Amino acid sequence: MTYEGEHLLAGNLGHLFVIVSFVFAALSGIAYFNSSRTPENYLIWIKPARLFFWGHVLSSLTFIIIMFFLLVKHYYEYQYIWQYSSGDMNFRYLLVSFWGGQEGSFMLWIFWHLVLGSILVFSSKKFEPQVMTIFCLVQVFLVSMLLGVYIGDWKLGSSPFALRRMTDPTMGPIWRLIPDYLSFDDGMKTGKGLNVLLRNYWMTIHPPTLFLGFALTVVPFCYAIAGLWTRRLTEWIKPALPWTFFGIMVLGGGILMGGRWAYESLSFGGFWAWDPVENASFVPWIVLVGAGHLMLLNRNNQHSLYSTFILTTFSFILILLSTFLTRSGILGDSSVHSFTGADMMGQLLLYMLFFTWLSIHLLLFDRKLKLYFGIVTLVILLLSVFGNTSMVFGQMAGATISLRSLLFIVGIVSLFLFLIIGYNKTFARETQQEENFSAREFWMFIAAIILCLSAFHIIYNTSIPALNVVFDTKSTIAADERNAFYNMYQVPFAIVVSLIMAFTQFLKYKKTDASKFFREILVAFGLSLVASGIIMQYYVFKFDHAFLLFTSVFAIIANLDYFLRIMKGKLNHLGSSIAHVGFALVLLGSLISQAKQQVISKNYKGYVLNFMTKDGALKNEEDVQLFKGELTSMGDYFVVYTGKTFDDKNGHLYFNVDYLEQLPMMYKKGDRVVHQFQLYECNADHAAAKTFLHESNYWKPITAKSSEEYYSYSTWESHRPGKKSFNLRPFVQLTGSGMAAEPGTQNFWSHDVFTHLKHGNLSPANTGEMDAFKLQANLGDTLKTAGYRIHVAKVEPLSND
C-alpha cells in the first residue's frame, strides 16, 4: 500500500547507509587483523583496511546527516523524529533532540569515534594494525545498535529511521489501512517534542562533551590491547598517555557540565544527587584517573604494569557497563533520566562481556590458562543460552540461588581467579623490588587503589537493580537516602585522595629525603590550617567534613606552593598542579555549597499556604506568596513581583521578581504602628531593631478611639526597601510535551540566591494572578489571609438585578 505524504527515500537511504557502515567497519577490522599477522600481510592488507575504514567513515557521516535532515524537515512519520522533536523547537533544541533519544545518542557516540579513528589512522604508526583492529571491532558493536534488523525472532539494534506506523504501539494495525493517515489525524502533524527538562542550553554542550569523553576511553583501551597482543608491554604507554589525560579532562568537564545543568534546572541548590546515571559516568572517570597516574609511573620507572593494564582496559569496560545499566531499562525504577530499552538488553550485555573476555584473554600469556579460560567461558555461555536460568537450587542469605545466580557467581569468581593466576605467572616479578615508603610512586599507587575502592563502592551500589534481577532480590537505596549513604563512604575516600594530592608532589621518585620533605611542605601545611580555620568561622561542619575541608585546602595550597616556590613556575610542572588544584576546588566547592543551604523564603504572615494546593506542597516554612506590586520580606531582601512576560518563540513564561536591599526603618517621635493587635506610639527618634522586643523602650501602648483609626495605621516593620539589587526571572516552560518550572539564579562569589515557582497562574496575560478562594465570616470578624488582614465592617445584600 502507498501512503500519502510519507518521505520514504531519505529514511530508506539512512537505513541503507547504517548497514553499509556496519559492513565497512567489519571489513576494515578483518583487513587490519590480516595486516597485523606478518610483515608480508601488512603490505597486502593495509591499503584495503584503510579504504574500508574511510568507507565506514563516509557512510556513517551520511546517515548522521540524513538524520539531521529529517529533524530539520520535521518528517513526523518517523518514530524518532516524532518522539523527540516538534515544530515549536528552534535549531538549538533540534540539536538536542538529535542526541536526546537512545538511537541519537549512539549516533553521537559513533560520530566522535569517527573523528578519533580518523586521527588514529595517521598517528598510531607501528601500532596501527592492532589498534585499528580493536577500534573497528568497537565500531561494529556500536553501529549494530542502529541496525534494526531481525535475525529470526531476534531483533538486532533499533533503527532511528523506523516509521511510526510500524513501531509505535499506540498505532495499531488499523493505521496501516489508511493511505492518508498523516493528514487523517491532527496528532500526526506535529511531534511529541523534547522533554522540557532537556530544553536547556547546557544540553547543547553537556551530552556532546560527555560522549566525547566516553569515546576517548577507547583509545588507551586499544593501545593497551595492542600492547598485550604484540607483547610490547611498555611501548604502548607513551602514545596512549596524552589520549588518557585528554579523556580525563573532557570526561571530567562533561560531568561538571551535567552538574551545572542540575544546579540550574533540576534540583536547584545542589548539583550532585548520586543518581545512577550520574554515577555511571563518574565511575569510569575515576578509574581512568587511576590508569593515567599509573601510566605516569611506568613512563618514569616500570612499576605496577599489570595494574596499569587492568585500570586502562576496565575504564573502557566500565563505560560499557554504564551503557548497559542506563540503556537496558534496568534502572527504570531507580533513575529519572535513564533510557528504556529492554529489547536491547541482550545486545548491550554481549557488547560488554565480549570486551571483558577479550581483555582477560590477552592478559593471560600462558597458553594453558587461555585454554582453561576459554573452556570456562564456553560452558557459562552455553548454560546461559540453552539452560533454564530460572531453575532454583535453594536459598542463601535471603537470596534465591538459581542457575542464573550461580552462573553469575561462577563468572565473577573465575574472572578474578584467572586475573590473579595470570598475574602470578607473568607479572609477579615486577613486585620483587621492595617499595620505599617515601617514594612518590608508592603513594601514587596507593591513590590509585583508593580510587578503585571508591569506584567499586559506587558501581556496586549503582548496579543493585541489576543484581536484584540476577539474585531475585529487592534491595534498594531510596532516593532521599542516597546522599547520606554514598557520602558516608565517599567522604573518607576523598579525604585520603586529597591528602595524597597535597604531599605527593613534594616526594621524589624511588626515595625522598625526609628532612627536606618536611621543610618544603611545612609552609603549605601551616597556611592550610589558617585558611581552614578562617573558613570554619563562617560554616558549621561535621568532623569528617571539617577534615575534608582541611585536606582540600591543603591540596590547593600545597600544589600552588610546589609550582610557584619549589618549581619556580616551570611550565613543564604546571599540568599536574593545575589538575590537582582543579579537583581540590571541586571538592571544596561541593563541600561548602552543601554546608550552608538556607531557606530564606519563609512566610511569617497571612493565611496558611498549603490550602492552595491539593497535595499541600506549599509550606509557610519554605514558601511565600507574592502579590503583584506588594513588597514581601525574604531573608536580607525585599522582593516584589512585577508581572509576567511570555516568550512565544521558546514557550517560556517568565515571572519577574525584583530583589531590593533592606534598610533599617527610621521612626520619629509621635509615629504610630500596630504590632500584635496593639496600637503603639513612638516616644523617640530611632532606627528600628530587628525585632520589636529589642526596641520596646521606644514605644508605649495606646488605645485607639475607633476601629477605623486602628486600621488606619500600618504594621510595625523593622526594615524598609532600598534600591534594587537584582532581578530574577524564574520561568515555566509551556510546550506541547509538558511543562516544567526552572528557577532564576543570582550568583555571588560567596553564595547564590534562587527563586523557584511552585504555584501560580500560568496564563501568559498579566491578569488573575491567583485563583479565587472562599472565606466565611460574620459582621465584625477579622480574618487573616495570605498577605492581608480583612475586617468585616459592613455587609450588604445582593441587589435583585
List keywords for this structure.
801 residues, alpha+beta, 3-stranded antiparallel β-sheet, 52% helix
Write the layout of secondary structure elements.
Elements: H1 8-35, H2 39-73, H3 79-84, H4 91-98, H5 102-123, H6 128-144, E1 149-151, E2 154-156, H7 164-167, H8 181-184, H9 206-216, H10 218-230, H11 237-265, H12 276-300, H13 305-327, H14 345-363, H15 367-386, E3 392-396, E4 399-402, H16 403-427, H17 440-462, H18 464-471, H19 482-504, H20 514-535, H21 543-566, H22 574-595, E5 631-634, E6 637-647, E7 652-664, E8 666-667, E9 672-675, E10 678-682, E11 686-687, E12 699-702, H23 707-712, E13 719-728, E14 731-735, E15 738-742, E16 744-747, E17 752-755, E18 782-785, E19 788-791
Short characterization:
This protein is of the alpha+beta class and 801 residues long.
